[in-house]
Specification:
With 103 residues, this protein is mainly alpha-helical. It has 4 helices and 2 strands, in the order αααββα.
Length: 103
């Protein structure tokens, strides 16, 4: 009986962050679905999803967003409209405005 010397596990490919970012850029420029792109490049879809979360386009996420508040006179009270996760809204806010803050 001979023992098999080679491992039956597939070889794990480690990619640098630059390689991952290049793959993400290629995926975003192409018109393929994630499933088709992964099949073409022999990548697990879970890996692509994880890479996009970690290394994806984060240009709009840095820094602060300027917010203008109405000037309140000393005797004027603000009425709380809504509060979510510690953010207080004192007037009705359009959903598209909130989306623009996130992008």
């Amino acid at each position: 009986m001979e023992q098999e010397t080679s491992s039956s596990k597939p070889k794990v490919v480690r990619r640098t962050s630059e390689e991952i970012q290049a793959i993400i850029a290629e995926y975003e420029k192409g018109g393929l679905s994630a499933k088709a792109f992964c099949k073409l490049h022999h990548i697990k879809k879970d890996y692509l999803t994880r890479w996009i979360t970690r290394y994806g386009n984060k240009k709009g996420l840095k820094g602060f967003v300027p917010v203008s508040l109405p000037v309140m006179t000393p005797g004027q009270e603000r009425t709380l409209f809504a509060e979510y996760r510690g953010i207080k809204f004192y007037q009705k806010v359009d959903a598209s405005y909130l989306k623009s803050l996130l992008s």
